[in-house]
């Protein structure tokens, strides 16, 4: 768990993540791309995004989520609150799902 990560490291990672999100292209960056950019796991990216969303909102910015989409039927996961990739489509059960992408404005 990230609780074991020293505070300074957490702050640095989150700042790097925020910088990558602010500089993201219009299509956003997926957790995998952010993971590669910042050097943490995709799961950790999702955790940091939760905190980043709060801090961005607190300072008048926002985290923009471009929702995941089913590649088989086109179902868009608009109501999904979690930042991880969905396992399967609730509509057609396909597992080929285009992951959510993220951008930030501050
Ligand atoms: Zn589907």
From TrEMBL:
Protein name: PF0610-like winged HTH N-terminal domain-containing protein
Domain (PF0610-like winged HTH N-terminal): residue spans on this chain: 28-63
Organism annotation: Stigmatella aurantiaca
Entry-linked InterPro entries: PF0610-like, PF0610-like_wHTH_N, WH-like_DNA-bd_sf, WH_DNA-bd_sf
């Amino acid at each position: 768990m990230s609780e074991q990560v020293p505070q300074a490291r957490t702050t640095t990672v989150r700042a790097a993540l925020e910088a990558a999100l602010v500089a993201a292209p219009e299509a956003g960056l997926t957790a995998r791309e952010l993971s590669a950019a910042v050097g943490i796991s995709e799961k950790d990216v999702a955790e940091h995004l939760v905190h980043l969303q709060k801090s961005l909102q607190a300072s008048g910015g926002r985290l923009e989520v471009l929702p995941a989409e089913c590649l088989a039927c086109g179902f868009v996961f608009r109501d999904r609150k979690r930042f991880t990739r969905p396992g399967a489509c609730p509509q057609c059960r396909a597992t080929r799902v285009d992951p959510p992408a993220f951008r930030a404005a501050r």
